[in-house]
Amino acid sequence: MDQLTGFQRDLLYVIAGKDRPSGQQILDDINRYIDQPVTHGRLYPNLDTLVEKQLVEKGQLDRRTNYYALTPKGRRILQRRQEWVNQYVDV
Could you name the domain of life of the organism this protein comes from (predicted)? Predict the structure, then answer.
């Protein structure tokens, strides 16, 4: 997790909170959170990096739409991250 950017970590959280979201769904959610609009040119390379790191699985919903889902490895590192954060932040 320490090898990821903050943006990539945010993407993991968004993906974890949805059932196989499309790139557009991820983009819509992340844009509701981040002050400056995120473009496709920023989103998809970062999603591809998460796929390459085997943290996210990419599949096809139809001929034009891909979905993204956490892999078991991605879920484990996100869970460890959340446990670490919970040690320091009691919200």
Answer: Archaea
Whether residue 1 lies inside any domain: the answer is no
Backbone angles phi, psi at 3, to 5 degrees: -85, -5
Contact assessment for residue 21 and residue 80, using Cβ atoms and an 8 Å cutoff: no
Cβ atoms of 38 and 50 closer than 8 Å: no
DSSP β-bridge partners for residue 69: 57
The CATH number of the domain holding residue 43 is 1.10.10.10
Domain span including residue 54: 6-86
Residue 85 pLDDT exceeds 90: yes
